């Protein structure tokens, strides 16, 4: 019984060791990519976009608590045409993450700020794993800091689509960011076999040690 308990705890420890140590990561231009999605409505980027070359301005905050000032180098301003609609962004996190906080740096006045964002989250296999709609607060002024929105999920997210709209067709903001943990991988078959092999070896060693002790005490 005691040995069984020991085996179980050893196996659990082995499983824990098989995954990487959890460490919170701030996702920005150093570890993820963003592009303008095909779902973007006809509209105008008002000279802040450079034909897409500068879209990384929306993921360039160095940390979740960074402060940005509103100028041509830091923000994106998009105006949907008279039919309405919005701006679609597509994020690729490069690997799967469990999301814990959404950070949004909005513009500072109602005339141009983002009024609604609809997120759709996908796994590494491109399977939808969640949606989220937020009405972000106005940005702080003059230095713009992020509004932090705590998320309990989704988990195992690699791709994200964000559709940003303004009630007056104006979409102006500084950054979108996420705080996340790398998702724990499901152990590969090889890893499981290696763990089983290690466990068998350890049991053999323990048995051999017991035999050696009993032989020593018997002599
Ligand atoms: Ca920015
Ligand atoms: Ca607005």
Question: Would you kindly provide a written description of the structure presented here, covering whatever features stand out?
Answer:
This protein folds into 2 domains: 2-10 and 187-218; 22-182, Galactose-binding domain-like (Jelly Rolls), CATH 2.60.120.260. Strands 1, 2, 3, 4, 5, 6, 7, 8, 9 and 10 form a 10-stranded antiparallel beta sheet that branches. It is of the alpha+beta class. 21% of the residues lie in helices and 34% in strands. The radius of gyration is 25 Å and the shape is elongated. The structure holds calcium ion (CA) (2 copies). Residues 57-58, 60-61, 68, 74, 174-175 line the site of one calcium ion.
Summary, kept brief:
This protein is α+β, with helices and mostly antiparallel strands and 219 residues long. The protein contains two helices and ten strands; from the N terminus they run αββββββββββα.
Strand content: 25-35%
Ranges with pLDDT <50 over ≥5 residues? Answer: 6-20
- Averaged pLDDT, please? 87
Task: Please work out how many helical segments DSSP would assign.
Answer: 2
The CATH class of the largest domain turns out to be Mainly Beta
As a percent range, the share of helical residues equals 10-25%
CATH superfamily of the largest domain: Galactose-binding domain-like
Q: Report the major sheet.
A: 10 strands, antiparallel
**CATH architecture classification of the largest domain:** Sandwich
Count of the separate structural domains: 2
DSSP E strands, number: 10
In angstroms, what separates the terminal alpha carbons?
29 Å
Ligand kinds = calcium ion
Q: Choose one word for the global shape.
A: elongated
CATH topology of the largest domain: Jelly Rolls
């Amino acid at each position: 019984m005691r040995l069984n308990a020991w085996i179980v705890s050893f196996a659990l420890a082995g499983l824990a060791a098989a995954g990487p140590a959890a460490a919170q990561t701030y996702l920005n231009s150093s570890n993820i990519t963003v592009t303008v999605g095909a779902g973007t409505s006809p509209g105008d980027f008002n000279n802040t976009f450079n034909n897409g070359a500068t879209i990384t301005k929306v993921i360039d905050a160095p940390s979740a608590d960074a402060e940005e000032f509103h100028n041509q180098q830091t923000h994106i301003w998009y105006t949907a045409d008279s039919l309405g609609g919005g701006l679609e962004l597509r994020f690729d996190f490069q690997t799967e993450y469990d999301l814990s906080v959404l950070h949004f740096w909005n513009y500072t006045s109602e005339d141009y700020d983002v009024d609604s964002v609809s997120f759709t989250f996908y796994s590494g296999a491109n399977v939808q794993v969640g949606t989220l709609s937020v009405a972000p607060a106005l940005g702080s002024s003059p230095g713009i800091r992020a509004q932090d929105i705590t998320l309990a999920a989704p988990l195992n997210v690699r791709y994200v689509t964000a559709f940003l709209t303004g009630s007056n067709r104006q979409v102006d903001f500084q950054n979108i960011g996420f705080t996340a943990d790398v998702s724990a991988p499901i152990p590969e078959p090889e890893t499981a076999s290696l763990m089983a092999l290690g466990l068998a070896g350890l049991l053999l060693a323990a048995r051999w040690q017991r035999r050696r002790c009993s032989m020593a005490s018997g002599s």
